[in-house]
Amino acid sequence: MRKLTPELLDHLPHDDPGAVRSRRDLARINRFMGNNSWIIRSVGKSPSHITEIGAGDGILLSKLSKLHPGAQINAYDLAPKPADLLKKANWHRGDILTQTPPEQGGVLIANLFLHHFTDEQLRVFTPWLQGFDTILINEPLRAKLPQLLAKAALPFIHSITRHDMRVSIEAGFIPGEIPLLLGLKDMGFELQETTTWSGSIRIIAKQSPI
Predict the structure, then answer these.
(1) Better-predicted residue by pLDDT, 209 or 141
(2) Whole-number mean pLDDT of the chain?
(3) CATH 3.40.50.150 is held by the domain 8-207
(4) Of the four, 6, 59, 147, 149, which is 20 to 30 A from 170 by CA?
(5) Inter-axis angle of helices 17-33 and 35-42, to 10 degrees?
(6) Nearest 5°: phi and psi at 58?
(7) Share of the chain above pLDDT 90, in %
(8) Dist CA 6 CA 97 (whole Å)
(9) pLDDT in tens, 177-203
């Protein structure tokens, strides 16, 4: 069963020194897990619109913007728009559950974001997802091996990261949970769900051709 505990990073000012250090830790963990590279490969060759919910520091969207200069970029996050990143992005700041999704569709990215929400809140996302052609989801895998890997990393990461990494795995997902909670099959998406040894559960959801 998923266990949701508040993550420290979510409640610190964006410029807090500990938060800055923890975000650096998370960037290294992301590289180790290959999360961003998987998303970049999965986006496709020529998307017209790319949207990320929980865009954070904007690094992933900045890379995608350079790879796909013709794509319109939309970002949603509680944090302010990074001053030195994503100058062309439409940045929507605020609670995602109160935001209106973009009308253009295209590719939607949720990278290490959905595990912050309760099962009931995730069901609220269903109308938000309907207009997208492709949805890419990368979340923590709730399993013993990721927990062991997290313990092995403890001496090398900040105390904030130590806490948040543990609770994020506890709030993560097992195969089959995300499509069920979001109602992806009911919306006509064709699903490809995989897990990785490093602790990710990944979904590519594409609208079935009419």
Answers:
(1) 141
(2) 89
(3) yes
(4) 59
(5) 60
(6) 80, 5
(7) 45
(8) 17
(9) 999 999 998 888 999 999 999 999 999
* Across 162-178, average pLDDT: 92
Lookup: tokens for 191: 């699903």
Residue that is written with structure tokens 């795995």 in the block: 169
Find the helix packing angle between 59-67 and 35-42, rounded to 10°: 30
**Which residue has 């961003």 as its token pair?**
36
Residue with tokens 């030195």: 84
**Cross-sheet strand order for the sheet of 49-53:** 90-93, 72-77, 49-53, 107-111, 134-140, 200-207, 189-195
> Could you please report the per-residue DSSP string of the chain?
-------GGGGS-TT-HHHHHHHHHHHHHHHHHTHHHHHHHHS-S--SEEEEES-TTSHHHHHHHHH-TTSEEEEEESSPPPTTS-TTSEEEES-GGGSPPPSS--EEEEES-GGGS-HHHHHHTHHHHTT-SEEEEEEEB-SHHHHHHHHHHGGGS-HHHHHHHHHHHHT-B-TTHHHHHHTTTTTTEEEEEEE-TTSEEEEEEEEPP-
Q: Phi first, then psi: what are they for 108, rounded to 5°?
A: -110, 135
Q: Which residues pair with 111 in a beta bridge?
A: 138
Q: Where are the domains of the chain?
A: 8-207
Kindly report, residue by residue over 171-181, the tens digit of the pLDDT.
Answer: 999 999 999 99
Q: Mean per-residue pLDDT for 17-34?
A: 85
